[in-house]
Amino acid sequence: MFRQEGNTTEVAFLSHLVVPSGTNELSSDNYASINKLSISHAMSESFSIAYNIGYNYFGTDKGDLSYSLAFGIAVNEKVGVYIEPYGDVVNFKFDDTVLNFDAGFTYLPNPNIQLDFSFGTGINKKMNYLSVGCSWLIPRANK
Question: What does the buried/exposed string (b/e) look like for 75-98 if buried means 16 or more CB atoms within 10 Å of the residue's CB?
Answer without folding.
Answer: eeeeebebebebbbbbeeeeeebb
